[in-house]
Amino acid sequence: MSTTLGTTSAVAINDVSVRFRSKRAETTAIEQVSLDVAPGEFVSIVGPSGCGKSTLLKLVSGLLRPSSGSVTLLGEQVRGPRHDIGFVFQRAALLEWRSARRNILLQAEMRGMSSAEAGRRADELIEMTGLTGFENALPHELSGGMQQRVALCRALLHQPRVLLMDEPFGALDALTREQMNVELHRVWRETGTTVLLVTHSIAESVYLANRVIVLTQRPALVKEVIDVELPGERDYSATMARPEFAAATARIRDLLGAVTGHD
Ligand SMILES: Nc1ncnc2c1ncn2[C@@H]1O[C@H](COP(=O)(O)OP(=O)(O)OP(=O)(O)O)[C@@H](O)[C@H]1O
Ligand SMILES: [Mg+2]
C-alpha cells in the first residue's frame, strides 16, 4: 500500500524482509515489515538492540536493498542510494578542520547547490537551532549538543522532504538531550519535513512523534503501533505531565519488557 488518506506516502515499506548471509550463518534482520509514513509525519522507531532498526533506515535511504518486498520514497521505488534525504547519525561526524558553518555548507558543496542560496539557508538553520555566535567555531570548540545541532543543520541544508535519524542524541547527557528534543520538535514543525527517528529513549520517542513503531526482537516485526495523542505544540514539562504521555510511555515500556523505569 503506498497511499495514506488518499495522498502519496512519504515513505512506504511494503512487506520487506532482510537477510544477511555470511559464510558461517544467515541472519534474518527484518521479517515482513510494512509501514506507511504520511508526508510531514514524525514517526519514532523503538525496539531491542540488534533488532534491525538501523537496517530499516538503511533500506529507506537506499544504502541497502531488501531481500524481498519493496520500499517507496516520495512515490518512487528505492533502487539505490537516495540523495534527496537527510541522515543524522549517533555521532556528528564533523570535519575537525572546518568551522561549524563550513561543516553545514559541506552538504551544498557535495550537491553543487548555489553558494548564495546555501549560505542563506545555512544562516537560517544556524539561527533556528540556536548556533548563532558559534558559526566560526571548530568542532572541538563545541559541546556535544552543539555538534549534533551542526549535524542536524547539515542534514537539513538541502531541504530534504524526508529526514532519517539514527540515535542522534544517544551520546548526549540527559539535560542536553531534552533540550535537543525541544529544538528538534520546533524545527520539525517549522520545516514540515517527514521524520523517521530511531531511538532507545521511550520518553524521546513519545515526546517527538505522531506515532511510535515498536519492533520485536530480531528478526524485527512490527509489534505494535502507538498513536501519540498529544497536542502539536509541546512544552516539555507540560507534555511529560500529561496522562496521554504517561499512558503511551507505560505501554511502550510494557511492550519492550523494560523493568527499570529508566530510558
Ligand atoms: N551488513 C551486515 N551483515 C551482516 N549482518 C548484519 C549487517 N548489518 C546488520 N546485521 C545484523 O542485523 C541485525 C540488525 O542490525 P541493526 O544494526 O539493524 O540493529 P539495531 O536495531 O540498529 O541495533 P542497535 O539498537 O544496537 O543499534 C543484527 O543482528 C546485526 O548483526
Ligand atoms: Mg542501530
Automatic annotation (TrEMBL):
- Provide any one GO MF term from the record: ATP binding
Query: Would I find ATP-binding among this entry's keywords?
Result: yes
Asked if the Swiss-Prot or TrEMBL record annotates the protein with the keyword Transport, the reply is yes
Coiled coil regions in record: none
- Key words, A-Z: ATP-binding, Nucleotide-binding, Transport
* Annotated ABC transporter domain residues: 11-242
| Alphabetical list of InterPro entries matching this protein | AAA+_ATPase, ABC_transporter-like_ATP-bd, ABC_transporter-like_CS, ABC_transporter_ATP-bind, P-loop_NTPase
Looking up SUPFAM superfamilies in the UniProt record yields:
P-loop containing nucleoside triphosphate hydrolases (SSF52540)
Known Pfam families for this protein?
ABC_tran
**What SMART domains does this protein map onto?**
AAA (SM00382)
Kindly provide the name given to this protein in its UniProt entry.
Answer: ABC transporter ATP-binding protein
